[in-house]
Amino acid sequence: MTKLSEYLRISEAAEYLGVSPNTLRNWERDGKIVIHRHPMNGYRLFKREDLDALLRQVQEPYDPTPRRPKKAR
């Protein structure tokens, strides 16, 4: 059985990620993040491991296609 201590409420998750709660709601609606519902009150809950995975994904270095160097004149 999963412990509720493994989850963060929306305000806690937003602070953890450095975004607003509305951003998390939008990400949920767009399917970018998985939410869980509290069994008693239906509030949004976010698993810490899901938030960490999202942070890792966002923090991966961007690797654009290398551009050709400009020719010297």
Q: What is the string of SSEs from the N terminus onward? A: EHHEEH
- Count up the helices: 3
CATH architecture label = Orthogonal Bundle
Task: Provide the structure class.
Answer: alpha+beta
> Gap between N and C termini, in Å?
69 Å
Q: Give the averaged pLDDT, no decimals.
A: 85
* Main sheet makeup: 3 strands, antiparallel
> Based on CA inertia axes, which overall geometry fits?
elongated
Query: What is the number of independent domains?
Result: 1
* Strands, total number: 3
Care to describe what's here?
This protein has three helices and three strands; from the N terminus they run βααββα. The chain is of the alpha+beta class. The chain has a three-stranded antiparallel sheet. Strand 2 (36-37) and strand 3 form a beta hairpin. It starts with 6 loop residues before the first strand and ends in a 14-residue tail after the last helix. One of its GO terms (biological process) is regulation of DNA-templated transcription. One of its GO terms (molecular function) is DNA binding. Residues 7-56 form the HTH merR-type domain.
